[in-house]
Design goal:
75% of the residues lie in helices and 0% in strands. The chain has helices at residues 2-15, 26-46, 48-72. The radius of gyration is 23 Å and the shape is elongated. It has 80 residues and is mainly alpha-helical. 0% of the residues are buried. The chain contains three helices and no strands. α1 (2-15) packs antiparallel against α2 (26-46). It has one domain (2-72).
Length: 80
């Protein structure tokens, strides 16, 4: 997502011809978009995206269970 943001900022700076960005090649401006596409392709093919989604779901589930235990007045047992 950072690469996409950088690409948008560079695109705007190049299009509006602000500062030294006015002389940059369009290839240099478009490079972050290409890198973002490569990142998304790798993340999807390697399972990184799914793994992160499962981690978020598990964290939400654990927090929800902890809130319910607190509401019921149940505290975790102390180890013996």
């Amino acid at each position: 997502m950072y690469l996409l943001g950088i690409g948008i900022v560079l695109l705007a700076l190049r299009w509006l011809e602000i500062g030294p960005f006015a002389t940059w090649s369009w290839w240099a401006v478009a490079a972050p978009f290409g890198l973002a596409v490569l990142w998304w392709a790798w993340a999807d093919s390697s399972g990184y995206t799914k793994r992160k989604a499962v981690e978020r779901e598990n964290a939400r589930k654990a927090e929800r269970l902890e809130r319910q235990r607190d509401k019921l007045g149940l505290r975790p047992r102390k180890p013996r």
